[in-house]
Design brief:
The protein is α/β, with parallel strands linked by helices. It contains twelve helices and ten strands. A six-stranded mixed beta sheet has the order 1-2-3-5-7-10, sandwiched between helices. A four-stranded mixed beta sheet has the order 4-6-8-9. The longest helix is centred in the N-terminal third of the chain and has 16 residues. The protein is globular and about 65 Å long. The structure holds acetoacetyl-coenzyme A. Acetoacetyl-coenzyme A (CAA) binds next to helix 2, strand 6 and helix 5. The site of acetoacetyl-coenzyme A has 22 residues, from helix 2, strand 6 and helix 5.
Length: 261
């Protein structure tokens, strides 16, 4: 495939085991047009298979993480073509990645931009980040998970405010509401997200994926089913070399050597 034009991908961190994807369409505040989304999907799919990568960070610029789906691209869309063309159905890749994905958000994370951030496993935000679902102001509604993920993260009342007014939510408030895990000065958020990625990449890649899968099940299952799923995966860790190595290394007071087996 040809080199991407609207994203930049590099391997960063001391061991170069964190992939940093920068959304890079500055003139349109990283509006998520078809080309950008397909480049992002392709990059994520190949990084998910790349054994040198233990975690993925997605960021934008200091001005915008992403200002949403490309409004100009969809102005003339009609119901029949969005329905039969499965419009936005290819936007789910971020949530299908097995490795941990961290969003490092500065500036605007609006509409689809915020929805992409919320598909990530962890959100770190810069102090000036702004989150929101402004779709209502252009006569539509969120189409990539906004109405559902805000409710699960912040409860119905706040989710309704966000989706029915289009008002922007500050980084601090997003943190108080549980959307964001930490807030940093603008120039530090990407570095902190990479450090977090490095810390996760130091663990067994295999077990990290199991832990991620178990946490994600909390969104889908009843508590009883979720606890059962967790217990079974926990049992399954005892079928891995890395579990044996982790516990042996602890007893021998040394660092574990993971094989992802
Ligand atoms: N789509 C297309 N172009 C966009 C865009 C978008 N979502 N957001 C910004 N741009 C473009 C602007 O049109 C402008 O381009 P020109 O210079 O060619 O005019 C450029 O980016 C800079 O934007 P502004 O001049 O508007 O910058 P600002 O600082 O005055 O305002 C902003 C910033 C508040 C983010 C404003 O750009 C804005 O409101 N953007 C639209 C946000 C939005 O409604 N997003 C939801 C989209 S729908 C969606 O995402 C559906 C879904 O669920 C998937």
């Amino acid at each position: 495939s040809t080199a991407p034009e609207m994203i930049k991908v590099e391997k960063v961190g001391e061991k170069k085991n964190v992939a940093l994807i920068k959304l890079n369409r500055p003139k349109a505040l990283n509006a998520l047009c078809d080309q950008l989304m397909s480049e992002l999907s392709d990059a994520l799919r190949s990084l998910d298979l790349d054994t040198s990568v233990g975690a993925i960070v997605i960021t934008g610029s200091e001005r915008a993480f992403a200002a949403g789906a490309d409004i100009k691209e969809m102005t003339d869309n009609e119901f029949a073509s969005t329905f039969s063309g499965r419009f936005l159905e290819n936007w789910t890749t971020v949530s299908e990645v097995k490795k941990p994905v961290i969003a490092a958000v500065n500036g605007f994370a609006l509409g689809g931009g915020n929805e992409i951030a919320m598909m990530c496993d962890i959100i770190y935000a810069g102090e000036k980040a702004r989150f929101g679902q402004p779709e209502i102001k252009i006569g539509t509604i969120p189409g990539a998970g906004g109405t559902q993920r805000w409710v699960r993260a912040a409860g119905k009342s706040f989710a309704m405010e966000v989706c029915l007014t289009g008002d922007q939510v500050t980084a601090q408030e997003a943190k108080e509401r549980g959307i964001v895990s930490k807030v940093f000065p603008v120039d530090q958020v990407v570095g902190e997200a990479v450090k977090l990625g490095e810390k996760i990449a130091d663990q067994s890649p295999l077990i990290v994926q199991m832990a991620k899968e178990a946490v994600n099940k909390a969104y889908e299952l009843t508590l009883q089913e979720g606890l059962h799923f967790e217990r079974r995966l926990f049992h399954a860790t005892f079928a891995t070399k890395d579990r044996k190595e982790g516990m042996t290394a602890f007893a021998e007071k040394r660092k574990p050597q993971w094989e992802s087996k």
